[in-house]
Automatic annotation (TrEMBL):
Keyword line: Repeat, WD repeat
Pfam families listed in its UniProt record: ANAPC4_WD40, WD40
Signal peptide limits: none
Organism: Malassezia vespertilionis
PROSITE patterns the record matches: WD_REPEATS_2, WD_REPEATS_REGION
Name of the featured protein: Anaphase-promoting complex subunit 4-like WD40 domain-containing protein
Alphabetized Gene3D superfamilies for the sequence: YVTN repeat-like/Quinoprotein amine dehydrogenase (2.130.10.10)
Alphabetized InterPro entries for the sequence: Apc4-like_WD40_dom, WD40/YVTN_repeat-like_dom_sf, WD40_repeat_dom_sf, WD40_rpt
Mapped WD repeat ranges: 55-96, 101-142, 142-184
Keyword rRNA-binding applies: no
Length: 408
């Protein structure tokens, strides 16, 4: 596969709907655990037992998930050209309530909310960013590019502004009210593959492993460049997330590896160490996966990274697993994974028996809900394409995302 095909990654596929039977007593997350499959013996660790599927779902692979910053409202963008919006009521045994939907004229690549949680904004292959007003149920075009809009983010600068990143090798900043107005356009050396915003800083990962960051200047309406470097990973970037403190970013690559990088990282005068680090993840070896030949390790892309309000983060990979991590202690906090053989499992990920790749993840504002999307990510080409696609919500145990003491 070419680099362009790999990064486009999500191909059109049809959904096979899976309905979870839910217990009806009590609120979601407080029910007794449902019975597990016969293969999941008492010795196996089981994840996802209380996870609930978001239905009705998309009819093609999910490209992005986003929660409102002010309420438990989930937006789901898909290659089927639609953005679907759901209310989630944690006190209800049936917590997912379909609310609204709108569509683009081509696959939707990304979605976000404004700071007030009143608008859903999405970008797609129709080269437009569209805004859906949750108060009026009206949709409007708020941004345009000359090629696919790969990323959309809302930033606090300028009293609230939309940032769009495109395959046309530009990042643009827009004021969307009272009328859409372009504030500034930034020319880039390559296509945008991933992007995030923290405060006034825009961080962009591009083709050819390029990383750049820009700081929005509200007085001049410009965004001067503050970082220009190559990715600390050896291979293509699949995802990027700004660190919560605004002092760097985390990158996921195609080689099953995550790098945590800081903008300013001078050696410690006492021991000469730096803060940046990288670690392996989303890989399979024979010890846990009998389908992998001995003395081999299979590497899978890290498709998504998201931080939560506790400062820890999650990754989702092409191997069909999810992990929660603590950056400060450099430790893994929790995994959702299928390990072992079907008849003698070590770990069981109840909602993902077929090990579908993770295509998108998101935490809600207080990190009590974690949403994840399963579907095909095209890392194995068309021969391995599957029609399955699902979104689930997971009630988060606070201990699973709690920061651990920093390593010294």
């Amino acid at each position: 596969m070419t680099a362009m095909q790999c990064q486009h990654s999500l191909s059109q596929a049809r959904v096979a709907m899976l309905t979870l039977r839910l217990a009806t007593s009590g609120g979601w997350g407080n029910r007794g655990a449902p019975s597990i499959t016969p293969a999941a013996t008492s010795a196996a660790k089981v994840s996802g037992e209380q996870d609930i599927e978001v239905l009705p779902g998309a009819t093609d692979t999910v490209s992005a998930l986003a929660f409102s910053p002010t309420a438990d409202v989930l937006a789901v963008s898909s290659w089927d050209t639609y953005v679907r919006i759901y209310r989630i009521d944690k006190t209800n045994a049936q917590p997912v309530q379909p609310w609204q939907q709108y569509n683009h004229e081509a696959p939707v690549m990304d979605v976000c909310f404004n700071a007030e949680g009143t608008k859903v904004i999405s970008g797609g292959a129709d080269k437009m960013a569209r805004c859906f007003d949750l108060n009026t149920n009206q949709t409007s075009v708020v941004a345009q590019h000359n090629d696919t809009i790969r990323c959309v983010r809302w930033m606090a600068a300028l009293g609230g502004a939309l940032v769009t990143g495109s395959w046309d090798k530009t990042v643009k900043v827009w004021k969307i009210e009272p009328q859409p107005t372009l504030v500034t356009s930034i020319d880039l050396p390559e296509r945008v593959y991933a992007m995030d915003v923290i405060g006034p800083v825009i961080i962009v990962a591009m083709a050819e492993r390029k990383i750049m960051a820009f700081q929005m200047n509200e007085a001049t309406g410009t965004a001067p460049q503050v970082v220009d470097q190559l990715s600390p990973l050896k291979y293509q970037t699949r995802c990027l997330a700004a660190l919560p403190d605004g002092d760097g970013f985390a990158l996921g690559g195609t080689e099953g590896r995550v790098a945590v990088h800081y903008f300013h990282d001078p050696p410690d005068p006492k021991d000469g160490k730096v803060k940046k680090f990288a670690f392996r993840c989303h890989r399979r070896a024979n010890a846990d996966h009998s389908d992998v030949p001995r003395n081999e390790t299979h590497l899978f892309p890290v498709n998504c990274i998201k931080f939560n309000s506790q400062g820890t983060f999650a990754t989702g990979g092409g191997d069909g697993s999810i992990s929660f991590w603590c950056k400060a202690s450099r430790t893994r906090l929790k995994t959702f994974e299928n390990k072992g053989t079907p008849m003698a499992p070590k770990e069981v990920f109840k909602t993902n028996p077929n090990r579908l790749p993770l295509t998108a993840i998101a935490f809600n504002a207080d990190a009590s809900i974690f949403a994840y999307a399963l579907g095909y990510d095209w890392h194995k080409g068309y021969q391995s394409a599957t029609s399955e696609s699902h979104v689930f919500i997971h009630p988060v145990n606070p201990e699973d995302i709690k920061k651990r003491p920093q390593k010294t």
